[in-house]
Structure formats: C-alpha cells, structure tokens
Amino acid sequence: MVAVAALLTGTGLTAAPGAAPRMAHGHGYPADRIADEPTRRFTLTAATATVRVSGRDVAAWAFNGQVPGPELTATVGDVVQVTLRNQDIGRGVTLHWHGYDVPNGQDGVPGVTQAAVLPGEEFDYRFRADQAGTYWYHTHSVSDVGVRMGLYGVLVVRPGPVTGLDVTVPVHTLAGLALPAPRTEPVAAGTPVRMRLINTDSTTHRYALAGTAFRVAAIDGSDLRGPTSLVDTAVLIPAGGRYDLVFEAPATPVALLVDGRAVFSTGPVSTATGGWPVLDPLRYGAAAAAPWSRYDRTFTLVLDRGLDLRGLLPRYAHTVNGAAAPDIPSQVVHRNEVVRFRIVNRSQVVHPWHLHGHHVLVLSRDGEPATGSPLWLDSFDVRPGEVWVVAFRADNPGVWANHCHNLAHADAGMTLHLMYS
Length: 421
Ligand SMILES: [Cu+2]
Hints:
Layout: H1 2-9, H2 32-35, E1 40-53, E2 56-63, E3 72-75, E4 79-86, E5 96-98, E6 122-128, E7 133-138, H3 143-149, E8 152-158, E9 165-174, E10 177-179, E11 183-184, E12 192-199, E13 205-210, E14 215-219, E15 222-223, E16 234-237, E17 242-248, E18 255-258, E19 261-265, E20 297-308, E21 315-320, E22 331-333, E23 338-345, E24 351-355, E25 360-365, E26 368-369, E27 376-377, E28 380-382, E29 387-393, E30 399-404, H4 407-411, E31 415-420
Parallel strand pairs: 1-4, 3-8, 9-12, 11-19, 20-23, 22-31
Antiparallel strand pairs: 1-2, 4-6, 5-7, 7-8, 9-10, 12-17, 13-16, 13-18, 14-15, 14-17, 18-19, 20-21, 23-29, 24-28, 24-30, 25-26, 25-27, 25-29, 30-31
The chain binds copper (II) ion.
C-alpha cells in the first residue's frame, strides 16, 4: 500500500478507496479525445453466474451473465462509453482495454488509474476509437482470478462496414474447459473472410488454419506491411495477443484448429496440423525503415525467479531485476522520448510481456534484427533464454502498468510501472 500511495502522490493522481470516480481528465492527454458525446454506449454488469460450457454448469464471474462478455464493436471515429457496474464481485472489478492505447485515466488498473469498482458501484469509461483492429477487455482487479473466472470480452474497431465474413475467436479456458464452443458455418466460395484470433488465457496457444491459403493481415491490432500468402503454417499467439487471418473462402471446407481442436469450420475437414511449421512474425512481410534513428533511454528488464522476503511471508516470486512487485522501481520517461526496452528472460518459463498505453516496435530477438514487416505489439512471448529489444515513443502520459500477462506471474511479483516525469 505504501508503494502504491507513493506512486500516486508523485503524479498527482488520486484514487479514493471505495469511491467510484467519474471521468478522469487532465493527465496531459488531449481532453477533447474523450470529452465528446459518446456515439457508442454499452453497459457491462459484472456478477457471479453459472454458465453452461460443453454441457456442464460452471461457476463463473461474468459480464451481463455471459462468458465471454458481450462483444463490443465500434467504427473508427466513434466515441465509446462503457458503464461498468459491479453487482456482487466482492474483490472488485475494473475494465482494462487490452491493446487499446486509451488515456491513462481510462486504463482500468486499480490502485494506479482508479479505485476498483466494488459491489454496488459503477464507473464510466470513455475513449475515442481512433485505431481499427482486434482488441479485448478484461478486469484488472485481482486479474489472475477475475480473467480466469470469465471477466473478459472482445473489442473490435472496424474501419467501416463489414464486408464478407468477419468472425472473432476469443480462446479461453474456463474451469478447465475450452472456449469457444466449436461452430460450423458454411460460407460461399469467394467470400472474403477475416478471422480475429484472440488469446485471453495466460499461456500461449497454437492456431492452425487448414484448407486454405491465408495471410496474417494484422497482429495486436496493427496491420502488417506486405503480408505474403501462407499455407499449412501454424501461428503461436501469446497470452493477450491477437492475430487477424484473412483469406478468400475456397469452394472446399476450411477449419481453424486451436491446439488441435477445431473451433470454427465451414464444413468437415480432416487434416493433421500438428507437424506444421510455425510462423515467425519477425521474418514475415515487408520491411520498412525504423521511424527513429536514436534512442533517448534504454531500460533492461531481467526476468527471473527469486525469493521475496519483503512481505509478511516469504514467497518464491517472479522477479524483474531481482525485485518483485511492489518493490520494482518504476521506469521514468519524459514525454516524446524514444525509449528502448531490453527484456532478458533468465527463467525457465515463458513470459508474455505487456506494456499498457503504448505499442512497442520489435527491433531484435537474440541479437537478430527483425527483418519482416514492422511489428507493433502489445503482447509478446519472451521465451526462456531469449533477449528482446523493443522500442516506443513515450506519447501517452500517465502511470502505466508494465507486466507479464501470465497473470499468475504478474500476481507473484512480475509487475512494474512506466511513469512520465
Ligand atoms: Cu511471466
């Protein structure tokens, strides 16, 4: 609590415990971005619920009684307002717009950008939908439990009206059962199809699209440059990540398999996809010159495990630079600086890294420069032994969570903050 209070004091943010603050203004982000009248309004009510999965009744935490929560859609230019209500989630709820670079006050991190919304309270989120793409939302309050129990949903911002078939596939594991339920939908040959694959779990999933050539049009909401046609190739999507696959429906059936399980198909397909090669996004698509030639600041984050003796009880923590939350020093940047992160995984497990409020451009992995399309990511797997170098422009002032999106790891210490001074 002391560390959080100090963090908030230093930035002039206030988060009164128990209060449900209204719109946040004046954190250096242009106010007109969120001051306009909403053009898309939604209400999400979080509550305990029983949902049916694979013929079984499962205890869940749900938005509007369903897992996933309602799919929120908008068109570029909309002002989105979402009223979050908490009916009975005792540990509180917030909404974090995963991958959407909203003003800091709308980011939904309890204790940092707002107080958790407690039972009986509500909070209005508002942001301008100025970036098209595939995103998702989830609670950031006791997020390891909350997301796993079902407090998540899809956010899709489209550039215009839907053409062809546009499907979202939010993959999740609820009480050990795989979502979504398999679905078959015949599609006329020649129909343009966009499949928006979303990984809402804490570990990597493997996706294989069988029966057609396809392109990866976007990753984490950003369009790729010059994506080439792929066939019999799997993609690995990190925790929190999104891939948009596009293709023209062939006359023969197509199936999407997640970890070998068919989740969407246009007819019967029997193909063994387990042996397919995996796409390396750092080598896919057409390169472009980096937008910066110099970097104002470089931070190194060494991810590891270690004993944390600072709390009431000793714990075996997931650490960054030898420390665990809330004792990891914040990284401080100035507005408009170009900042580089060097992320070193010295542990034995994958850490899907997630910086809030910014997209990072991948520069290199293990010293090998990225040679494909510029990759602007918000979620990327740093595997054991790997070293990733990524960069971003500090253009969204505030206090931003910077953490592992294996939410159990984040909970066990692997969370720090990016601050503007
Ligand atoms: Cu991790």
